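Appendix B. Raw example, untouched.
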Amino acid sequence: MSEPSSRPTLGLRERKKARTRAAIQAHALRLFREQGYDVTTVQQVIEEAEVSESTFFRYFPTKGDVVLSDDFDPLIVDAFRAQPPDLRPIQALRVAFRAVFDQLSGQEMSEQQERMHLILSVPELRAALMDQFASAMRLLAVVLAERTGRQPEDTAVLTLAGAVVGAVVALTLAVGDDPTANFAARLDEAMAHLETGLEL
């Protein structure tokens, strides 16, 4: 069983864009932490990040997107598609999750924990997160259907996609306020539980 050992190699232009995007998000999260989300303005983030207004909105259409945006979905999809065909879908997903989260440094994990805490503490961001989970479920149904030769609307495909995303939602709500929580470890535990057929 092979797992991706590193993130995809990016060209110079893509690396610069990724650095700019990460810098804007880091400055925004710091301001949100220091001042509060509601009172922090986009203009303040622009000034702190030392970027133009057009650059900010190229990466983040709204202030909320600065907090809500991440790259996990495409990374997980790519890792899932890279898994050997003999793995059952739930096993391939578990390996894909591990492959992606194992690449995060301790600092990156802390930043993600901080971001999730902020999302859960701001009602409008929390509501938007639920919409993101719904989109993630639709995306997961598509890649599961692709792997199994079924249709995304197939009941079994939707059920599995819903179970996986449901586990992610439950864990997000459970560990979002716990700075010591290891989300990746809890998610792996949840995926193992799904593998057993949800026996209690």
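End of appendix B.
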